[in-house]
Design goal:
alpha+beta, 6-stranded antiparallel β-barrel, single chain, Elongation Factor Tu (Ef-tu), domain 3, 4-stranded antiparallel beta sheet, 385 residues
Length: 385
């Protein structure tokens, strides 16, 4: 028993030291918690910016190209930039195929040729066409004889004429073409394929002497006066785009030209991988400068809004925050922290920090920022010395 008491008495100084240290740590933590809370970062930043100012001489202001404006409400049209690609307008695109079997006797146009509606493009030697034409002429001659004789069967003969005309109409001949054939029996017996639209020959699939069947594609013709531009809109911008939204389009070949159009279609599906929605513009192209396959930069013009705004170059970043320099008397400029919206055509909407009627630096703000930072760094170096 005496040995145990003797052992405890030897360890007692160690326990005393441990308990003293523990009490000291707890007391230090408790006193730190009782101190007044620190000033929030935002308030500290505000106080810091209130002190950030610089004075420039009239010569420095002139040399730096510093200009000021009074903040006021202006009208802006939000712009959404999207990529695009020029496409043919399917409403003006025609794939010409043969309605009869035969042989290509004459090709009258080739790639790049401009054509008008009703112009002869290809002439074919076709037995089915000759049979239909012969049937029409015989029926018409018979009707003429009976009509002169005032024969009772002339009505029946006329029905045969109409039947023969309808067969030729199935071969894409119009009434005026058929009438011309009946007036000029000496007309050559080749079948003429005519252009269904005004446009340009885009491609040709046959050569002279080639045998073709019903449905054989002969050539593609397209109107280039009115084209489409396929565009891709981000999901976040959909609320600002509707059918009828005006658009401006530029292509690399003519960077100084703007082509006008409007949205005439918005797709019903958001692509799962890109999160883009396909849209379409319709563009006038009377000069033919736009070519299908061209990539384009498209700006969609939103509804006009009125807002306080400053030129984009008036916004600077100092110590990680956006600022505008406010102009005061005596060449003094102060950095004012601001909150802004998205840039619109070179202007930035002012949401917070600057009031209407205040004079701010609209041009040369970067020069003032540089001078401000130089003076700040100089003070810091002097302070450290």
């Amino acid at each position: 028993m005496s040995e145990i008491l003797d052992l405890k008495s030897k360890d007692w100084p160690r326990w005393t030291l441990f308990l003293s240290l523990l009490v000291s740590i707890i007391f230090a933590l408790w006193t730190s918690c009782q101190k007044s809370p620190s000033v929030p970062d935002e308030e500290a930043d505000h106080e810091h910016f209130q002190a950030e100012e610089i004075t420039l001489s009239p010569e420095a202001i002139k040399t730096g190209g510093v200009e000021t404006q009074v903040l006021q409400t202006i009208s802006l049209r939000p712009r959404i930039k999207v990529p695009g690609e020029i496409k043919f307008n399917p409403r003006g695109y025609y794939r010409l195929s043969s309605p009869v079997a035969g042989r290509v006797e004459q090709l009258l146009v080739f790639e790049g040729d401009r054509v008008t509606r009703g112009q002869n493009l290809v002439k074919l030697f076709s037995l089915p066409y000759l049979e239909a034409l012969t049937e029409l002429k015989l029926a018409y001659q018979r009707w003429q004889r009976l009509d002169e004789l005032q024969h009772d069967e002339k009505q029946m003969a006329w029905s045969l004429v109409l039947s023969a005309r309808n067969k030729l109409k199935l071969l894409r001949l119009e009434d005026k073409d058929i009438d011309e054939l009946l007036r000029q029996p000496s007309e050559d017996q080749l079948y003429c394929l005519k252009s269904p639209i005004h446009g340009q020959v885009i491609s040709r699939q046959v050569v002279t002497g080639e045998q073709v069947e019903v449905g054989t594609v002969l050539m593609d013709i397209a109107s280039t006066d009115r084209l489409w531009a396929e565009i891709f809109i981000q999901e976040k911008d959909l609320a600002r785009v509707t059918e009828g939204t005006e658009a401006l389009l530029r292509v690399q070949a003519y960077p100084d030209l703007e082509f006008k159009g409007q949205v005439n279609y918005l797709g019903p599906i958001v692509d799962e991988s890109t999160r883009l929605v396909k849209g379409r513009l319709e563009l006038d192209n009377p000069s033919g400068l736009l070519k299908t396959g061209m990539y384009a930069e498209v700006v969609l013009l939103g509804q006009e809004i009125k807002t306080l705004a400053v030129p984009e170059e008036a916004i600077q970043e100092v110590y990680g925050r956006k600022v505008v320099f406010v102009s005061e008397q005596g060449g003094k400029f102060k950095a004012r922290p601001v909150e802004v919206g998205e840039e619109i055509a070179g202007w930035v909407p002012m949401l917070k920090g600057l009031k209407e009627g205040e004079k701010y630096v609209s041009r040369g703000a970067f020069i003032i920022k540089s001078e401000l930072l130089k003076s700040t760094f100089g003070e810091d170096e002097h302070h450290h010395d």
